[in-house]
Design a protein that fits this description.
With 147 residues, the protein is an alpha/beta fold. It has one domain: NAD(P)-binding Rossmann-like Domain (Rossmann fold), CATH 3.40.50.720. It has 6 helices and 7 strands. It has a 7-stranded mixed beta sheet, sandwiched between helices. Helix 1 (12-21) packs across helix 6 (138-145) and helix 4 runs parallel beside helix 5 (119-127). The longest helix has 12 residues, at 37-48. The radius of gyration is 14 Å and the shape is globular. 33% of the residues are buried. Residues 18-116 form the CoA-binding domain. InterPro entries: CoA-bd, NAD(P)-bd_dom_sf. This is CoA-binding protein. It comes from Rothia amarae.
Length: 147
Amino acid sequence: MTEECTWVAPTVLQRQDILRTTRTIAIVGMSDKPARPSYGVASYLQESSSYTLYFVNPLLAAEGKEVLGQTVYASLADLPQAPDMVDIFRRSEDLPGVVQEAIEVGARTVWIQLGLWNEDAAYLAQDAGLNVVMNRCVKIEHAALRQ
């Protein structure tokens, strides 16, 4: 039996407004491997946007690694400022925990990457007053919606 989806996604105009009003993005699940989607998105955003980016990956942070010339942080709480958006590249079962962290640090938006779906996480964020985008790619949306 297929589980019924009840969460309603933002419209294209709402997503465009989110991207337009965002200034800082934390990428949770950032990888140092160029073939990984998080690396590709971060690389694109560095080159094609004016967003301030923060990278979050506790394993890379523990090793003191930098990715794309930037510090990698262990958690959202370690960032020098609260990000406007938390762009999540983690497994679906990890999403509620990351969303809770985003709420705690004062993010305005959680953006759950293409291929990921967790309605509990979406409702958790939405109930806390955050914008929620799920199963969409920031890179694709930014490229398609920028003017």
